[in-house]
Each structure stands twice: as C-alpha cells, then as structure tokens.
Amino acid sequence: MLHNPRREPAVYGLGVLAVTLARSRNSRSRMSIWAKTWLLNRDQFSHMPLLRELQENNPNDYQNYLQMTDSCFQQLLSLLSPYIMKQDTCMRAAIPAEQRLIATLRYLVTERSLQDIKFTTGISPQALGVIIPETCSAIIQVLQKDYIRFPSNTQQWKDVAAQLTIYGISPTVEVPMMANM
Q: Deepest in the core among 40, 56, 129, 131, taking most CB within 10 A?
C-alpha cells in the first residue's frame, strides 16, 4: 500500500469524529429524563397530605397556612375551578385546581421563590411559573366585579396612597403610576 501524507490527517479526523459522536449519543441518553422522580410523585411528597391532616384535626393551623378559613378557601376554589382546572393527558395527570390555588396562595403570602415553593408543592418551577400567573388572572377575573375595586379618580388614588403610607409604604416608590397624577 502506498503511503499518502494527506490520508493520515483524514483518518485521524474520522476517528475523532466517531469518538465525539459516540460520546454525544451516550450523554443524550442520560439526559432523557423529563421530570425529577420526586416531582412525579407529587401526591406523596407535597404538602397536600399535611394539609388534609390540618384540615381535619387542626383548623387553626390550616387557616394559618392558607391565611383564610376552610370555608373561604372552598368558596374561592369553587369560583376559580372552572378557570384553572386542566384536563389530564395521555402523558401525565393534570395538576388539580386545589393544588394550583394553594401553590398560588403560598407564593403570594410567603413571597418565596418558585425554586423554594417547588419543595412544598411538588410542582416544578417551570410549571409554577405558568400556574401562578394563570391563577392570579383567574382570581382577578372572578373577584373583580364584587371584591376588587380600582380607584377611578384622583381623590380615590390619594386615599389609597394615604392608606399605603399608614403601612410604611411610599406610594411614589412602590406605586409609580400614582406619582404622575
């Protein structure tokens, strides 16, 4: 066989390419997990078993956790369920409306990060990033007519600013749109 000096680098290059492709295929097979196993077992690892226990045996602790009575929570859930309930798919069971509402309430009450809330809810931060805004929008949509009233004139905004000042909140810093009135 004749020695061809241009052939050697090509053979080496093909060898490097084969090794690189083999490694990338192995790394892809290891990364094919779509969800962490403990998140798939949401019912076992989330706060829901604890909440059921508190609801039955310690209503004061249950109220402290949700920041509302059980009857108020159930009423809110019944109003919101049609808006936040999702269908199960062939890939996975949908997160129930009750868990969606509880996750949203805990997020609003505690101001914890989505990464932190995932540990108590058993819901991924990516899903929480969708669930919480959807649930907040549903809360506004459902409660806006009867419970949420926005100021409609300058005097009403000034009244809101006065109430914020009582709680130590500067209306010109936290609510910038009021500064323009």
A: 131
Q: For residues 141 and 154, what is the distance between their CA atoms, to the nearest angstrom?
A: 24
What span, in angstroms and rounded, lies between the C-alpha atoms of 93 and 5?
Answer: 62
pTM of the model: 0.62
DSSP 95: P
DSSP state of 157: H
- The tens digit of pLDDT for each residue in 76-132 reads 999 999 999 999 888 778 899 999 999 999 999 888 999 998 888 888 899 999 999
- Give the start-end residues of each E strand in the chain: none
Whose structure tokens read 């130590």? 168
* Domain extent listing, the chain: 41-143, 152-181
DSSP 7-56: HHHHHHHHHHHHHHHHHHHHHHHHT---S-HHHHTHHHHSSHHHHHHHHH
113-121: list long-range contacts, CB under 8 Å, 24+ apart. Answer: 118/39, 120/46, 120/47, 121/42, 121/46, 121/47
